[in-house]
Amino acid sequence: MKKILKFIQVDLQQIFRDRALTSFLFAPFVLIIAFRYGVPWLGDIFPVLKDYYPLIVMFSSVQTSIMFGFVVSFIILDEKDENMIQVIRVLPITPAVFVFYRLAFATIFSILGAFAMISFNGFVSVSIVDSILLSIQYGLIAPFIVLIVGTFANNKIEGMAYFKGIDLFLSLPILYFFIHGWTKHILAIVPAYWTFRLFEKSLINFDTILFFFLGLAIYIALIFIFFIQFKKRVLDK
Q1: For every one of its 237 residues, what pLDDT tens digit does the chain have, with 9 covering 90 and above?
Q2: Cα–Cα distance for residue pair 173/191, rounded to 1 Å
């Protein structure tokens, strides 16, 4: 446990040394405040906006998770740039445990950020149980991003390109609520689809357990696949 706490201390020091990473670390909480007070204000000016409040919260919750994933991704890219990845092999813990720590770091912050957005947005509410279930799924977006960017991007410029592409990809399921017919279910290949559907069901007090476990299984499967790729392309290189 002391080793993990030391790693957390080192990572936080690295984050606070970089202004960009520091801003991304706190951006989700700024976003929560802005949405809590800004969206209702805009809704009073443009009443039609109120019909889209649930979609706004769905989308903004994704963004909070993405930002935390971005922070950890860029820590890894920094280590790649400085050829520090190989140092992981001589740490007093196994590389797999160290990567798990990094993923857990991103996931926990993302869960907390998503829970804050869902619970304290001020204009859309769901039960506390559904808030927790949704936060867990939103939180798993972060390790998904970390593994993709950490595996395939060779530097920060490439990392930013991947980050923007993943952000767009994860936001695509919002189209589900605007498309009619069976074709909208094609979006089910995007993991965030299941989170948005879980959110949709929670708003009408529908049984959410099935959507939670379906989404959870998909997130875990994708994280496992990309973890294998990260191990092969980065740790074992």
Answers
A1: 566 666 667 667 777 777 777 777 787 888 888 888 888 898 889 888 888 999 999 988 888 888 888 888 888 888 777 776 666 666 666 777 778 888 998 899 899 989 998 988 888 889 999 999 999 999 999 999 999 998 998 888 888 899 889 999 999 999 999 988 888 889 998 999 999 999 999 988 788 888 999 999 999 999 999 999 988 888 776
A2: 9
Tokens of 108: 């926990």
Tokens of 150: 């950490």
